[in-house]
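FYI - complex with S-adenosylmethionine, inputs then prediction.
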Amino acid sequence: MSALAFGGSWTERKLSVVREYLKLYATALKKQPSPEKPFTRIYIDAFAGTGDRKVKRLESQPLLDLPDLDAMAKSSTRLALDVEPAFHRYIFIERVTKRAGELDALKSQYLNRNIDVVNKDANDAIKELCRTTNWRVTRGVVFLDPYGLQVSWDTLIAISQTRAIDVWILFPSGMGLNRLLTKDGNIPQEWQDTLDRALGKTEWRSVFYRNEEVPDLFEGSRRTTVKDAGADKFESFYLNQLRSIFPTVMDPSVHLTNSKEQTMYLLCFASANPSRKVKELAPKLARWAAKV
Ligand SMILES: C[S@@+](CC[C@H](N)C(=O)[O-])C[C@H]1O[C@@H](n2cnc3c(N)ncnc32)[C@H](O)[C@@H]1O
């Protein structure tokens, strides 16, 4: 089975937070009956990859010093499959057919798990699942782990409308967003479309840019567009956006940083369940998992 190679130490942090949350969630929910019987618990991994990922180790780090080495070489799908108590259903969505095939192979390794592999675009597949699942008797966790800004805002709206899903979203504030916001505000149309799709509305233009009067050579002045954006603003903007559609949003999010302590990604948590009990419990569990 091949493995995906990507990320850095933030990948380890991201996966350990999500895995921890799945454990806490499954344990808490096992005790909660739905109106007829215990809720069906589902886990949806929407940018699933394969079952494994490559971990780069430095020569100076002896492998035997890493007790969790096995787990850390597993991707989100395997980590979720290992969580106890188990979910009733695992849905792995992956657009690349070869990778979806590798996810299929997990079925023979996890015979006691109910796995569905969906070889489709994650945004389409999630919207369909949200529409066709009976959320009165089902509760779920969705993990959105794209490389870039592939999560559409209307996918998040569909998730929020289920009133039954908790979601972890990897938001590429440094890697994705900052890179597309050019210094002078002259953004190619294709990038603007990506930003509109990912951020949900076009207000980002007035949030991340301001107009300024600058003196010109002839003792007059001219108006120019200046980028006015940084890590804090990216976080407050995105969390506010999430708050506009989800009853619960963890604030602050988990900052995934590189070796220079720059935030590359935000790992954001939101819960679509508006019940008072869940609004109290879900952010507690999320913070616990994130140890923040
Ligand atoms: C960052 S990797 C996933 C990593 C995985 N969570 C893990 O722990 O190894 C992102 C995956 O999403 C897939 N992907 C990218 N765009 C997609 C889309 N629109 N729909 C479904 N899968 C997509 C890529 O092929 C890739 O396998």
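Residues 4, 6, 15, 47-49, 53, 75-76, 93-96, 99, 121-122, 145-147, 150 surround S-adenosylmethionine (CB under 6 Å). The domain at 3-183+230-290 is CATH 3.40.50.150 (Rossmann fold).
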